[in-house]
Fold these 2 entries.
Entry 1:
Amino acid sequence: MTALDAELGAAVRGSDRAVTRAEVEDFLFAEAALLDRQRYDEWLALFVEGGRYEVPTTDAGATPASQGGYFVCDDWDLLRARVKRLRSRKAHAENPPSLVHRMIANVRLLEREGDELAVTANFIVHRARDGRTNAFPGRYVHRLQVTDDGLRFRLRRAELALEQLEAGARLSFIL
Amino acid sequence: MTSPSLSPDPDAAPLVVQDWERLAFRVHRRAYRDDALFAAERSRIWDRTWLYLGHETELPNPNDYKVRALGGRPLIFTRDSTGELHAFLNSCPHRGTVLCRETQGSSKHFNCFYHAWAFHNTGEVAAIPDPSAYADEEYKASMRLREVARLEVFEGFVFVSFTDDVPPLLDHLGAAADYIRMIGEQHVAGMEVLPGTQLYSVRGNWKLAVENAMDGYHFSPTHNTFVGYLRESGFAVTDDDQYAYNLGNGHSLLILTGHGGRISMLWEPRFGEDERVRTAEHRREMELRLGSERAHLVADESHILFVFPNLLLFDLEGLSLRQLEPVAPGNTDVRAWQLAPRGEDPAVRDLRMRTMVSFVGPGGLATPDDIEAYEAVQRGIEATAGNGRAELDYSDMSRGMAADAAGERGRSTDEGAMRGFWRHWVRSVGAGGPVDIGTPPPPRPEPTPLPSSRPHGLDEILAGTETPAGQEEVAAR
């Protein structure tokens, strides 16, 4: 954990400046454009060092990632491993890459504490692969760090509005 | 049957062929896609065999319930107000309406919205509106909830059968029972299923998921990126000295020692220094509680256990359960849960979740590639379907067949556990058994699982964390 602490210490300094909904929308739309084009290195740069990515199971409710079954509960180490994997030609579930297309709406700014801003948004991601298309509706529940030159993910969390992952709907891409 | 592979009629081609001259084993691909065989599996396997329903810790309190289907039959799995477990058909005895339309919860009663019939969670009728229109009390009592024919619990694992005509559960589990028992022995407080079910569906036949779990051969190529991640994090990965076993009644087992750490039992550098200290302490406790030999078996070997027909137990870095629910020949629902020690240290629980979810499940770094494989097989096997192609329309599972002929145990990277599964399947489904070419070996018992040659993990970990108390206990054993 000492290596991680050092990384966190070197992280970008937070800011208590005001943030508008338009800025958050631009951030999320730009992120969506990166993911739709499989530009994973640039996407990873949207996280603070030590950032996390979570997708709870469809029945997890309020169970925290550390205490129950999740589809994804990546710490910084696993998140970097996931990106490295996605860039490999040996990530068979995403080679060739799925065609993904995401819509983001209903962006809301929630509580603000120091340099941390909680935001939610609705999403729908369409993913076409192997002659079929799956739709993934859900809600983002992110915690962002506000910095002087933009926003960064501390926690990027995608909560599915599905009863279960339907056939073919494995989360080998970024939701 | 003569010349089994040359039949022009694909429905007459034998399903499972074992050629003892060429040491070849083949499975006809209609086994994965044929509607009539799927119906036969439902009626001859799912309706006639013990099925894994759930774990008793999913229902910790009286009146808790979960709703899930088995073999296409919707069920209410509940702990009644007196604490007893039931599996009711989720269908009103009156006219068949789905009775409980929630997926989980806690309730003393199940009420049908259609005509307002109400039932206690013991199954008895609680109320029928305007009962005077029915003959008598006896008639009313006969309308109790329909229940599965049998329900038995082994070490917290709840199994049901839709027919009375099954052996006792322990007879069905046979040699698989001890590997289930070992799970409970890992921790003194026992194990519990964690909330958060991975519910997903794959476009593949359920038997492809069984094959995949029993297939050590796919691990390195399919999980290339995950193995790379493990190696970078200081995790040893080897396929040497690992074996596969058929346990009878369709159950099978891989004993793995080459994939490294097991949380709280076998330490790996990526688990961190705190975990090393906790692991040493826990291993000493296991040593006293179970004895050295048993503690070694329980702690130092990883197991992948298949309990025919619908339960997969992955006892690896952590523990996960996977239940297979065939929906159609080319479509399977999967439900996966994490099992963890009751009252586990939150830091260990956190490590466990990250470690297991990173591998297993449809959002992990490895399982999506398995699903890609089942789905690609399901699409690919269409290529050889149809009249006139019967001879080509087989999948090959010959790897390591010489071990079957010699009656020896096979390596985990061979296909012997799959062959054992298919031999059992083809008899169970009413297709008469495998067709032999050449002279089959004389009947003899399956090789018994042997303890691995892996050294005792307690010695390894104490070498790194010597304490006076630890030395005393090592000396004692």
Entry 2:
Amino acid sequence: MDPVSAITTSAVETPMFFGNGAYRLFGIEHQPVGAPTGAAWVFCHPFAEEKLWAQRVYVSFARMLAARGAWVLRFDAMGNGDSEGQFSTASVDTMLSDIDSAICRLEQSSGISRGIGLLGLRFGATLAALAAERSSKVGKLVLWEPVVDGGKYMQEMLRINLTTQSAVYKEIRHNREALVRMMREGATVNIDGYELAYPCYEQASAVNLKEGRKRFAGPSLIVQVGKDGQPLHSDLEALQETYPVADLQGIVEEPFWKEIKRWYWAAPNLFEITLAWMAAR
Amino acid sequence: MTSEVLPVTFRNKSGHRLFGILHRPAHPCASGTAILLLSPGVKMRVAPHRLYLDMAERFVALGYTVLRFDFYGLGDSEGDVHEEYLADLYGAVQVGRYIHDTIAAMDWMQSTHGTTKFIVSGLCGGAITGLLAAVKDPRIVGLLGLAIPVILDGSRIDFNKYMTDAQLNATRDGYLGKLASPGAWRSWIRFLTFQSDYKMIARSLVKPVLAKLRRAEPMTAVPAPSEPADNTNPYFAPAFRHMVSTARPVYLIFAEMDRLFWEFEKKFVERNRPMLDAHAAWYGMHVTKDANHIFSFREWEEDMLEQCSRWLRCFEGGQLGMADRQGMEKAG
């Protein structure tokens, strides 16, 4: 079956705000179409502008899962998308707290209190993996092209700022060291329009998913998104080793979380392998 | 002053459910005008780096109700958009794919909230959608456009061929700058491993030389009959003329480092000076210094927001088109 052709709009998709302490988060809840299977998934979005590029792939996959009887909650973390708050005040801590709130929200709506699945892409996958370590409600984990080394990822973010400086001013006015120093002193660094502050930078830089055995013992799927014939990345193999039960698969798709020539409203190979994995569990 | 922020949905002409966010001011402005923030490209109703949230917050503070929503097939909305390439999707937007969704949003605002006057606003694809929708719907009383495109995108369009001199110069400077930078080795690797755009490099470096040579030639080259003169959007100038000639103000903000600004100057302003002069009272423009297409640095965004706010205050105060109105009164 062609997984993309099977996308249907779920009968009920409810946009809403739900609370996490002092602020409100925006989310869209997809109710199962037809008989519920008892599956419930919270989608954790990627970081900054990667979230927007990947948006439609998330929507399409949420609709596919709902069409197969699952509950899905897609939500925006504080300072992202339509949620309240500023990006500059978000951090790994606040993002994990937001995932906890989203799980609670889905639990209330669906009546499903255990075995909720977390699905994430890029740094959203990283956060999903971290959230699974601290919540007993999480039963399944799907990590699409996870960022394993947060430090390296944050350096990529700083590079975006350097590229913008270079394009605009024809010179680098603040190098990496200066940018980090500025953040440490309380300023923010602009990453494609997003104001990155030191708490987020520091906490994200400290993340290394390869370190230590994972407490989460449910089934996990790690997917590498790459080119045809590309070998599995050693970081992902090392990540797989940290889980008691984890599958690692490589599939061919373009990096739809950034600007590419193609319009990615769905990722057929990624969807197919993920659906097959879900169906087997 | 606190405002109300609500998720909303409504249906377009084809029955697709469109998702949006409505911002309602605590103290609405006297004119009762609402602002529609139309989605740019595929970046949905939040826009790059949540630009539309900042715009909505600023506009609501001035008393405007703001609706930002996703067009069909994009963001959270229903429907499908199946172009293979983004450039083709952008091209479809530039010729008016989402005019009817914009009209559906106004219909919903009118039936639900009694709003009958709208300013359309947005970045890039959102701005051109607003301009084209204004031709079809008189409820649109103004356009506040950011980085509005005057050209047509498409995967089969050779942009190298239609680049303005300013674009070629900037491209050439970019290449030369790369060669002088500490990371020049990366550029050389790309160049030597056939990853560079050689056509573009040649054109940006050679065209200035050719231009000098051509100045000495008495004859100009005649394009082949099947070759379009350029890639200008044929709907742009008529829509613009229609708007300003019906006394609906247009305010455009561009980013100085954005190719769309250079294209606007070269392919619209230079070719339409008489029309622009005739309707100067209804048209204004601002260029944010150094800024890129998405106004990403905070000072650029702040400059753009300040200009938007200034124009909206003038709009609400009935100060736009004053010269034209006074002229008409004298003539009368």
